[in-house]
Every structure is written in C-alpha cells, then in structure tokens.
Amino acid sequence: MSVRRITPGRPRTKPAEERRADLLDAAEAVFAERGVDAARIDEITERAGVAIGTFYLHFSSKRDIMLAVQSRFVDRLVKRQHAAVRKLPADDWTGRVDAWLGDAVHA
Questions:
Q1: What is the pLDDT of residue 96?
Q2: What is the rounded distance in angstroms from the CA atom of residue 17 to the CA atom of residue 69?
Q3: Phi (first) and psi of residue 44, to 5 degrees
Q4: CA torsion sign, 94 to 106 to 25 to 63?
Q5: What is the rounded distance in angstroms from the CA atom of residue 82 to the CA atom of residue 72?
Q6: What contacts 50, CB < 8 A, 6 or more positions away?
Q7: What is the per-residue burial (b if ≥16 Cβ within 10 Å, else e) of 7-43?
Q8: Residue 55 and residue 20: Cα distance in Å, rounded?
Q9: Residue range 26-47: average pLDDT?
Q10: How many CB atoms lie within 10 A of CB 104?
C-alpha cells in the first residue's frame, strides 16, 4: 500500500473561487475565439485545466457560464468607470461624462 504525502501548508486543489475564475477566464477566451454558439464546454474545461465535473459544480450549462462572463464584464466595467469619474472634481460634469464614455469605449 502506498502512502500519499501532502506537502504541509500547500492545498491539494485550488479554492472554489479560483476554479470558478479559471473557468470564467477560459470561457471568455473561447467565446472570443470561436463565438458562443461554436464554443464547447470541453474546450472551456480543457483551457481552464479542470475536469468537466468541476464545470458542473459551478455552472449548469454553457448559457449559464456565458451569463456569468457577461455579468463579470459589466461589474468590471462599472468599477472602472466609477474609478475614472471619481478622479475628477464633483462639479466637472463634462469631464466626468467624457471619462465615463471614454472608459466604456476603451473597454
């Protein structure tokens, strides 16, 4: 019988949040390269370096992960826009709108 050694202080797997982020990153890349319709779940999991079962621990379908990618994009966009606008004086409405639109176009 072999004894499995685990290095102390080092987890055997990534935390669930990191696996989910890996899947979202992979899905975003696959969707950008192939389009949502042509993308396959096995491509996403291969790119993320996880088993298909891990995908289904986090998402119920390709549509589900696509909506999560979309939601993450919007959350990041809003955070960047708020940061860009906060740098300007409160009474500089023209500058604030310009910063907000500029960030949206850049994204």
A1: 86
A2: 14
A3: -65, -45
A4: positive
A5: 15
A6: 19, 22, 23
A7: eeeeeeeeeeeebbebbbebbbbbbeeeeeeebebeb
A8: 8
A9: 97
A10: 13
Cα distances from 97 to residues 46, 56, 94, in angstroms, run 41, 41, 5
- Maximum distance among all Cα pairs of the chain, rounded to whole angstroms: 73
Amino acid identity of residue 106, one-letter, is H
Tokens of 22: 């890996």
The predicted-structure confidence for 2-36, as pLDDT tens digits, reads as follows 445 555 555 568 899 999 999 999 999 999 999 99
Name which of 17, 11, 28 is nearest 54 in CA terms: 17
Torsion (CA) 73, 74, 77, 78 in degrees, nearest 10: -150
Amino acid symbol at 105 = V
